[in-house]
Amino acid sequence: MSTSSCILEARGLRKSFGGFVAVSGVDLDVETGNIHALIGPNGAGKSTLFNLLTKFIQPTAGDIRFKGKDITHAPPAAIARLGMVRSFQISSVFLHLTVYENIRVALQAHGRDTWRFWRSERGLHRFDDQVHELVCQVGLEPLIYTRAADLPYGRKRALELATTLALDPELILLDEPMAGMGQEDIERTSALIRSLGGKHTVLMVEHNLKVVADISDRITVLRRGEKIAEGSYDEVAANEEVRSAYMGGAHG
Ligand SMILES: Nc1ncnc2c1ncn2[C@@H]1O[C@H](COP(=O)(O)OP(=O)(O)OP(=O)(O)O)[C@@H](O)[C@H]1O
């Protein structure tokens, strides 16, 4: 694969915890504009790899490049400024604020003008068009003036995604975006993630294989810390090693 078409590249990533190797020499190429899924059975190393890529933990060996820049030792805040944002951490939504206010705060933060937060109401309304655009994008129009604390779980996650999109990231990292969602929210969120492809790049860890099949352009399969397959859903689903990995345990 040509490196120029890849927004995120990892080479030889390794993470050991004491004597235990959780991620072992993984190479990963995430192509610009793709929806890319990381899958594998329980304990395969998906979360560890995701935490390495998002800089929550440091690798024992290997390196990571974002848009060609070495970010192996960059702190998470620095990579966010470069355009790589990890979403779906509900804790980053302000529960006492409404949907409208949460998205406006995210837009203000992105504009780096948080000091203006306390300025006149009129000044704050300059974000209204963008707030409405994002609210519509994630399907929260009827709940725009609802406090985040009062949103159902799936809608809270939609709000989290809207606040992430407010930062206009080139690469969005989603950690199990469908976890805990009912079927209706799964369908809505799948359609939303699918719609991000092309304009944004998405890398997600996801357990729901139907969702992975429906929305991913490319899939990387891990087992026991190693990459065992990569390709389209049909390609990885036909791979013998992948089939035996999933037959051996619960889907993960
Ligand atoms: N901080 C840690 N200390 C020790 N071992 C760890 C640590 N984090 C993860 N591991 C081990 O590394 C292995 C991979 O874990 P990881 O959570 O990355 O897998 P996973 O594919 O995300 O699994 P699941 O689908 O169950 O969430 C597991 O055996 C786990 O016990």
Question: Main traits of this protein?
Answer:
single chain; 252 residues; alpha/beta; Rossmann fold; 2 domains; six-stranded mixed sheet; 10 strands; 25% strand; globular; binds adenosine-5'-triphosphate; ABC_AA/LPS_Transport
Question: Mind explaining what this structure looks like?
Answer:
- Pfam families: ABC_tran, BCA_ABC_TP_C.
- InterPro entries: AAA+_ATPase, ABC_AA/LPS_Transport, ABC_transporter-like_ATP-bd, BCA_ABC_TP_C, P-loop_NTPase.
- Keywords: ATP-binding, Nucleotide-binding, Transport.
- The chain is α/β, with parallel strands linked by helices and about 250 residues long.
- The protein folds into two domains: about 1-85 and about 170-250, Rossmann fold, CATH 3.40.50; about 90-170, no CATH class.
- The protein is built from ten helices and ten strands.
- It has helices at about 45-55, 75-80, 100-110, 120-125, 130-135, 155-165, 185-195, 210-215, 235, 240-245, and strands at about 5-15, 20-30, 35-40, 60-65, 70, 85, 170-175, 200-205, 220-225, 225-230.
- The mean pLDDT is about 90.
- Adenosine-5'-triphosphate (ATP) binds near residues 17, 45, 47, 48 and 252.
Secondary structure elements and pairings:
Blueprint: E1 6-17, E2 20-31, E3 35-39, H1 46-53, E4 61-66, E5 69-70, H2 76-82, E6 84-87, H3 99-110, H4 121-124, H5 128-137, H6 153-165, E7 171-175, H7 183-196, E8 201-205, H8 209-215, E9 218-223, E10 226-231, H9 233-237, H10 240-247
Parallel strand pairs: 3-8, 3-9, 6-7, 7-8
Antiparallel strand pairs: 1-2, 1-4, 4-5, 9-10
Bound molecules: adenosine-5'-triphosphate.
The site of adenosine-5'-triphosphate has 12 residues, from β2 and α1.
